[in-house]
Amino acid sequence: MASGIGLYFSLDWQPELWWLGLPLPLILLYGLAGRTPLVKGGILALLLVVIGFDAALIRQALVAAPVLQKRLYTDITGTLLEISAGTGGRRLVIAPDRSRDGDASKPLPEKVRVTARQDISHLVPGQTIRATAVLLPPPLPTYPGAYDFQRDFYFKGIGAVGYLTRVPEVLADAGQGDQNHFGLSRLSAAARDRINDYVIRNAAPETAGFAMAIMTGDKGGLSKDDLEAMRRSGLAHLLAISGLHMGMVGGLIFFSLRLLGSLWPRLALNFPIKKAAALCALVGMAGYLFISGMSVSAVRAFIMVGLMFLAICFDRTALSLRNLTMAAILILAIRPESLLGASFQMSFSAVFALIVLYERFGHGIRVRAGIGSPLRGAALYLVGVLFTSLVASGATALFALYNFGQVSGAGVLSNLVAVPLMGLWIMPWTLLSLLALPFGDIPFFLEMAGLGIHAVLETAHFASGVPGAVLSLPLFPTGTLVTLVLGILWFVLWRGTVRWMALCAVPLAALFLLAEKPDILFAESGNLYLVRDRDGGFFVPTLRADRFERERWQIYYGQDRFTKIGTAATDGPFSCDRDGCVFTGFERTIAFPDTWMGIEQDCDRAHLVLSRQPVTGRCRSPALVIDRFDLWRGGTHAVYLQQDGRIRVESVNSVRGNRPWVPERFLDRAKGQPSG
């Protein structure tokens, strides 16, 4: 199924709906295949690939909605769906009343996400509001082949982003406005908003963001320094509501109720308190899932831990790869796009590795933990945490390097401190604070949880500052990831000598690493470009403009920093004046003009001109010209200067092709080919 989903998203054209009929002939072939296991197995495998492909196609058809094509200053009247924290202010998701706002020929998107820096304490999800906002199309990938933010927003139903210019006006209270947006998601958003406000009122400012992250899944309240420290120390998984949190909530409910039931001998002897506690834990986890916003990691965790408690009810094995497979199938069927996210990849890889090792060594650990003194049990618990952290870190390292270009080397030891704090201190007090929410402001529980949160943050900052705490490498191609993952699965799932065929995946994966990376990147805005010389230097014209793009480029190339053009170290390859810069290298002259005069000069002497100004048709001498219009149509451009003198160019949109989330201005163009 994952292969079919990956195939769908790798296409540069949009399949028609008739592709949904492909499973029918395969089902017929399967019925006519006789009893040959190899033939039937091959047809079944192909059928599952097609089912995954069709699941992604169906999901795209269900979420299809208008996407904003250009900057727009407008009034928005609609239903407030969600409020979340953010580093630059509160983030609002609004469903505009498209019958009242926008041009009928070009309607507003179904949902927009805007940032509010004003005081919006009077707003709650469900209200009908009127706001004035500057709306922008969702951001493009930062370079060809990078993570597609537009696709991510498209499948979330968000067709525009932007910011408010004034305080919104409330037209109708929750429950009195547009009834089309009433439902589970609105109620969940309202619950999260109430909990976040409760945390802000009762928790210390330095711990409130962490508390909101583990209670409602809203990480926007964390400071940038805390978030970066959590990532670099290998503790970022504590912020995402995943198996750890869901297991802790379910485990606390399960063991507490089972303990209370065992204190009444008559009840314990005549009633299945273990199964009753498991069912209550399921209900509690469902409530936790509801207030968490039902993210992919939370849904996956609920399914996995829920299957474990259901297995207890039916006297079956609680942890198995079959349970993990069922969780994966459900998520891939409902949200196929989650396959492309780091959350899905890292959470499933960690649980997969832990289950494989648990099936091998789990029984012996349980036996040893139940023998001896409590001190022995505590020591084994710490060893188990250390071993679990080591296994999970190793299992997710490949995906961390693929998505973020770095992996934490300090994660094993930092988790040894943080995970017991989460399980034994922070989560119990957090759960008590949730239970106390209906009784008004009771800061005691959040203050107690804050003591543990403060210790975790201190651990994160200390671990992230240790030399060598983070290993950074250039991002590697998707082909390398897929090949290595298939090789690991082959080795784990097969038995006997055939499993050693998985070693063939290593040289195959290495072949993808031979793919070249661009020598020049030219950002969509035209304000930032990058040039890589033959000596391994990376040069940019500014360290201020397009900071997000520059940081993503640093991850892509595995660099801590770039060199700014104009310093003494760059006097050789670059010559700059008020009209622009010229780079001499690769046996070519490459010009980056800033003015009309610079364009006229560079058109007569350069092999390649990259201009943030429109060049029109007056520049005929260079081999290639990329100007403002090319950037507007194609997004960020990547230039490959090949040894034989040829120049190859890719743009963000030429790589993505004709897909529903790609801007309309590109779809009918020449596939991102620059002018000249």
TrEMBL record:
It comes from Sneathiella chinensis. InterPro entries: ComEC_N, Competence_DNA_uptake, DUF4131. Pfam families: Competence (PF03772), DUF4131 (PF13567). Residues 17-165 form the DUF4131 domain. Its main location: membrane. It is found in: Cell membrane. The lineage of its organism: Bacteria, Pseudomonadati, Pseudomonadota, Alphaproteobacteria, Sneathiellales. It is a multi-pass membrane protein. This is Competence protein ComEC. Residues 215-495 form the ComEC/Rec2-related protein domain. The chain crosses the membrane at residues 17-34, 41-62, 234-255, 276-295, 339-358, 378-404, 416-436, 442-463, 470-492. Keywords: Cell membrane, Membrane, Transmembrane, Transmembrane helix.
